[in-house]
Specification:
- InterPro entries: His_Pase_superF_clade-1 (IPR013078), His_PPase_superfam (IPR029033), PG/BPGM_mutase_AS (IPR001345), Phosphoglycerate_Mutase (IPR051695).
- The chain is built from eight helices and eight strands, in the order H-E-E-H-E-H-H-E-H-E-H-H-E-H-E-E.
- It is an alpha/beta fold.
- The chain has two domains: 39-147 and 193-319, Phosphoglycerate mutase-like (Rossmann fold, 3-Layer(aba) Sandwich); 155-191, no CATH class.
- The two termini are 31 Å apart.
Length: 330
C-alpha cells in the first residue's frame, strides 16, 4: 500500500510539472485540456499607439455563482445546475457593491449567458431580482441573454465527476445505455467543443460589441455630441464603453489566454490541474481598443481589428465582507 501511495504521488507530481512546463512553452490549460495558445490576439506595438481609436470597450467578465455541481465537483459544460444558497448569498453581496452592480459604474451594455446559473446570477447582481427569485422593478437595466457567452461544451464528461476523462465518461455512457437495453449507437453524448471553436464564437460577440461601440462613438462625434455618459473622461483618455458580461469559468479562461495571456502574472493562482483560477463571482476586466484603420475598411468582414489589454484579473474585492469559507469552486 505504501508503495502504491508513493507511486500515485509521483505521478501527480509529474503531471503538475508537465502542466507548468507546458505553460512555459506556449501551451495553455483549460479545464484539464492542454492546447496550443494559437490564434491569440497580438500584443500592442509602437505603431499601434499611433493608430488606436479614441475609445475603448471595457469588458467586465464575471463568473456565475456557486452551483450544486460545483460543490460536488461535477462537470457542467452546457448542462446546468441550480445555484446553492451560498451562491445566491454571494450574488446578493455583489449586488450591494457599487464596484460591480452598475449603480456607480454605469454599464453601457449588460449581457449574460443563456444558461440558467449565469442568467440568475446576472439578474441578482444587477438588481433585477432578489435572492428569493422575486423580480425587482425600476432598475432600468436591459439584460441581453446571448448564447455566445455560454460555457464551453464538454462532451461526454458533462454530468460526471471532474476527475473522469472524456474516454472514461464515454465508456460509462455506453455501459449505461447497454444496461437500459439501448444499443451503443443510441447513446446520448453531449457536444464536445474545442477551445478554438469556443474562442471563435466569443470573439464574434466581442467583434459585434466593438462594432456597435464604434458606430455609436463616431455617430455622436459627427453630431457634435462627444460626451462620455458611461465613464470618466479625463484629459486625452479614451472614452470607455463599460460592458457587463456574466459567463463561465472555462470560457473566461479562454478569453483571458487568447486575448491577454502574455500579461498573466507567472505566480497567479492556478487549479491543481494547472488551469487559471477563476472563482465564482470573480471579475476579470479587459480593455479592447480598436485600431483607427478598421474605419476605412468597414465592408471587410475580417477587418474587426482591436488591441486588448488586461485591466484586472479574477478580482473578488467586491466580496470582501463574505463569510464564505469553502474553496473558490472551479
Amino acid at each position: 500500500m505504501a508503495c502504491l501511495i508513493a507511486l500515485i504521488a509521483l505521478v501527480l507530481l509529474s503531471l503538475k510539472s508537465a502542466f507548468v512546463g507546458a505553460q512555459s512553452q506556449g501551451i495553455i490549460v483549460i479545464d484539464n485540456i492542454m492546447c496550443a495558445a494559437t490564434d491569440s490576439v497580438r500584443e500592442i506595438d509602437d505603431d499601434d499607439e499611433q493608430q488606436l481609436a479614441p475609445f475603448c470597450v471595457r469588458l467586465h467578465l464575471i463568473r456565475h455563482g456557486e452551483t450544486i455541481a460545483n460543490v460536488h465537483n461535477i462537470v457542467l459544460g452546457q448542462g446546468d445546475s441550480p445555484l446553492t444558497d451560498n451562491g445566491v448569498a454571494l450574488a446578493v453581496l455583489a449586488a450591494a457593491s457599487d464596484k460591480i452592480n452598475g449603480k456607480r459604474l454605469r454599464y453601457w451594455r449588460t449581457y449574460c449567458s443563456d444558461l440558467h446559473r449565469a442568467h440568475r446570477t446576472a439578474k441578482i447582481v444587477l438588481g433585477l431580482e432578489d435572492g428569493e427569485g422575486n423580480a425587482i422593478e425600476g432598475s432600468g437595466v436591459e439584460l441581453v441573454v446571448d448564447s455566445r457567452l455560454r460555457e464551453i461544451a464538454k462532451g461526454a464528461r458533462e454530468g460526471y465527476a471532474k476527475s473522469i476523462s472524456n474516454e472514461v465518461a464515454l465508456a460509462m455512457r455506453r455501459r449505461e445505455a447497454d444496461a437500459s437495453g439501448r444499443t451503443g449507437l443510441e447513446i446520448d453524448v453531449p457536444t464536445l467543443e474545442s477551445i478554438d471553436d469556443a474562442w471563435r464564437r466569443v470573439k464574434d460577440w466581442i467583434d459585434s460589441i466593438v462594432d456597435d461601440a464604434s458606430n455609436e462613438y463616431y455617430s455622436t462625434v459627427e453630431e457634435g455630441q462627444h460626451q462620455n455618459n458611461y465613464s470618466n473622461d479625463i484629459g486625452n483618455a479614451p472614452k470607455i464603453y463599460d460592458v457587463f458580461a456574466l459567463s463561465h469559468s472555462a470560457l473566461i479562461r479562454t478569453m483571458i489566454h487568447k486575448m491577454v495571456g502574455h500579461e498573466i502574472p507567472s505566480d497567479f493562482a492556478t487549479t491543481k490541474e494547472g488551469s487559471l483560477l477563476i472563482p465564482n463571482l470573480s471579475r476579470t476586466t479587459i480593455d479592447v481598443r480598436p485600431l483607427l484603420s478598421r474605419r476605412s475598411n468597414d465592408n471587410d468582414a475580417s477587418s474587426s481589428r482591436w488591441i486588448p489589454s488586461l485591466h484586472q484579473l479574477a478580482d473578488v474585492s467586491h466580496l470582501n465582507s463574505a463569510t464564505h469559507s469553502g474553496p473558490p469552486y472551479l
